[in-house]
Amino acid sequence: MKIIYTENPLRSIVELDEKDHKILRLAVENDYIKDLATWAFMDLEEVKSWFPGVKKIRNIKAARSHLDICHDVFDAKMDARASTYVEDLKGIHDGDCICQPCTCSKCLAESYIGADSIPGLRKHEANYIYWAFKESGEPESCSKAIQCLKDNPPVVKEDWHNAHIERWTGEHKRALEWLEQYQKDHL
Description:
The protein contains 7 helices and 2 strands; from the N terminus they run ββααααααα. It folds into 2 domains: 2-113, no CATH class; 123-186. Strand 1 (2-4) and strand 2 (13-15) form a beta hairpin. Helix 1 crosses helix 3, helix 5 (123-136) packs across helix 6 (142-151) and helix 6 (142-151) packs antiparallel against helix 7. By secondary structure, the chain is mainly α. It has helices at 18-44, 60-68, 74-88, 105-113, 123-136, 142-151, 165-186, and strands at 2-4, 13-15. It is flat, with a radius of gyration of 22 Å. The longest helix has 27 residues, at 18-44. The chain has a two-stranded antiparallel ribbon with strand order 1-2.
């Protein structure tokens, strides 16, 4: 495995060798099988339903359908999922790792292979870096993003901001420090 650091740390590329491809494929398969087994177990278990006093009936057919997936097009499905994650490793961090309301598929793919292309970067600081690159324009430049962060500290624009400005200022400062260190270490 090799991490290719780019001007924008959120776009660093994780390249896999043959061994890492196999690890990723097995990790994806393992996760999927655990999900199927969990769904099957839930269908077989007698649990309370949403309605008080009513028990959920075991659904053997549904459980069987979850487990049958393992026999149908399983290999093709797992290969496709693994290929998607390989592509995600070449993309941008774009989920909860930068305070977006979704899972970051790049972070998930990195977790499967034990990689971390943005070590030590927390989500609020990553959000500042994300927006600094967006605001500084194309082509992406770490120096321009650093300057953008320096030129645009958090400010109080509305009364409710007063309750958060101290936290925002700390996050902004840590984002700037992290990005400056990234530039020094990798570019």
